[in-house]
Give the backbone structure.
Amino acid sequence: MSEETPHFRPSIKTQKSNETIERSQTEGQGGETHQHAPDDHRLTTAQGIPVSDNQNSLKAGPRGPTLLEDFHFREKMFHFDHERIPERVVHARGYGARGYFETTDPIPELTSAHLLQEKGRKVPAFVRFSTVAGNKGSMDLARDARGFAVKLYTEEGNWDIVGNNIPVFFIQDAMKFPDLVHSVKEAPDRAFPQAQSAHDNFWDFISLMPEAMHMIMWTMSDRGIPRSFRFMEGFGVHTFRFVNAEGDSTFVKFHWKPKQGLQSVLWDEAVKINGADPDFHRRDLWDAIQRGDYPEWELGVQVFDDAFADQFDFDVLDATKLIPEEDVPVRIIGRLVLDSVVDNFFAETEQVAFCTQNIVPGIDFTNDPLLQGRNFSYLDTQIKRLGGPNFTHIPVNAPRCPFAHFQQDGHMAMHNPAGRANYEPNSWKDGGPRADAEAGFRSYPEEISGEKRKARGELFADHYSQARQFYQSQTKVEQTHLADALIFELSKVETLEIRERVVAHLPNIDGDLAQTVADGLGFEDVPEAHAPRREVVGGLTKSDALSILKNGPDSFQGRKLGILVTDGIDGELLQSLKDAVQEAGGVVEIVAPAIGGIKTSDGKRVPADQKIDGGPSVLYDAVAVMASKDGVAKLKSVHPAKGFAADAFAHAKFIALAGDAAELFRAAGVTDFDDGVFELADRKGAAEFIEACKALRYWDRVK
Ligand code: HDE
């Protein structure tokens, strides 16, 4: 037996990986974890001691026991055993990227925030998207709200807008957050279901919390299953304050509007994507940034004063309410661009510590009781996750502006004060920093008075009005999806009383919705409606801004066409289809019976990106099938190929057919070809097909 096992040196060949490696050695913005010179391949311990053998532990003879003095083994294993930090109690599954924010329309009249004083002012940004309920390893397409957390490294410190892709929340007071989260996460005895809300505990809680009904409309709508992080809106949710240089304050709500337009998947797609590619969202973001298709959002603000707040039907401090864009228009003031992936997931995405209380001069909180509670929670949670009070020393969390204070010591202290002064006031010559009454952060001096009580504002008792407005603002297709989602979720609820108690909220929202869901659950009648605590405000105007379909992209930019091909197809036609997609700013993936690809009729090899069973049509925004006579004959006996066709049709996708591809669809049971199905014959046809794909779905098929 040999005592020395030869070293295995992995060689990295793919272009993508090489790019990543180069970047990590030059940029290192977020996590300067690589302390080696790039050409230093010598393995050492963490103490820098050179290692002679990384395959075998130190033994008393080749077959003898392992010796305790093997400090290399001991350190390696010790470190491995401590690799994990606690995952976030909510939003555990997330994905981050870097970029920048740039002011496009300065607003000094509204806020003194340095960043927003001048057009073109630019600061680095870090964004983390997430699901809420699932654990760190859960799948991306769970029905859930999505976190949309933005850290702006401004010249006056870090400003975090820790928002969601939904502008309202389930609850009104932070007191209920632990209950909400316990109810949606796995039950404590059985530890399932995970990463889903379709279970008794969640709906039991919701049925008893009418204030959640507005948010439920949003999570059951297609907002709960976005196609990509790139195609979602973001919202600050709470009402915040702007404060200008004169000390005047206005209320403000923050909106992130995706330049790419809104888009979601269908529930049946979500279910299948979770199996085919549980990392669908993170892969999408990674790929888009890597290919230079940088996702971009506009920052919009809704600004309003006390007079508006006083005449508004609802309380602006109530996070279960939004302010319709038709009432207070969204003014675009800046843009956020994500142009760089992280060097190291753990260093940046896992360790990034967002805190709602990170605001800069010119921004302030309101008394929203949810926001007030969050301001306590986020700091608390960072201590637990990151192990001590020095988490701001981690590069991704450190400010990028000068900073100076007298805090010291603690676990893993990296920035330590130089010199003698670590207190203030002091009389030393280099006595350290001093507070600045002019430029320093000052809270808006709002007058506060009131009885000390556990209570809520009166208008908080309205629970259904905006839920109704949301539902009624949706297109027919979207309303159907919403009702289907409720039926799906409640069908997973085992306890009849819970199902009934949920449905009894719906007549207060919309009679047809209540009836459809009751029918879908097999109820004989719609259960008697719960009495609203406050009369529902009727006649709220429908808001187009609430619908996804009314805010689609009208472009195939950043979207993906899946082309299923067989041997013997027309290579030129394939090329013209690829050209048309590229011209539209989209991406093509070739799906073939084998990963080695196919040969076109003129003998050219086309490599595949996916083998057919790894590339189902649910992964694509539109599909084309190009098949020769022999090719289709073989495809017809491949179940995933038939699934590719049947699903694409059922999911209302635009479909292009070339050669004998129609036969595959017929074999899959699709016989009625409609106007969403294109016969592909030449270059012009390819361009026409991609033009049609801008609409993303041929909804007429599923009306
Ligand atoms: Fe959070 N939330 N939250 N939340 N939240 C956390 O902080 C909390 C709420 C949101 O990508 C935790 O660092 C309370 C609303 C996002 O790292 C924790 C309440 C909104 C993220 C916490 C809320 C959010 C979090 C867990 C009720 C939308 C992920 C880990 C008062 C506006 C940030 C962490 C990231 C994360 C507490 C409600 C968004 C426990 C107490 C409303 C996007 O501190």
User: Anything to note?
Assistant: The mean pLDDT is 94. The longest strand covers residues 94-103.
